[in-house]
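seq as requested:
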Amino acid sequence: MPVSVSFLNALCLDRRTFIAIISVFFSVMSACQIPALAWFGLVTTHSIALSLFAVLPILLFMPVGSMAAERFSKPAFDKVILFLLVGLAIKLLVDAVAYRGVAF
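struct tokens:
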């Protein structure tokens, strides 16, 4: 997923278009994953309940995020996206090292 966010960021889309496209992208990816997860028995009533519960803070804070985004300039918004991408890359590296037990 970080690659797709990097690609969209490189397109230099305006803020509203970027947010709309990334929202649709993640929604479609999630919708495609649900049947696969169900097929392998990884979707349970408990995981569905947790997922629905996790949507509540997202819905509550979307207006806050929208107001904050309006206050950012285009360069500041781009820096925030790049900061998040760096954070995702670091997390992926840490997870890979922890999973494989590899030491640098």
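The chain has a mean pLDDT of 83.
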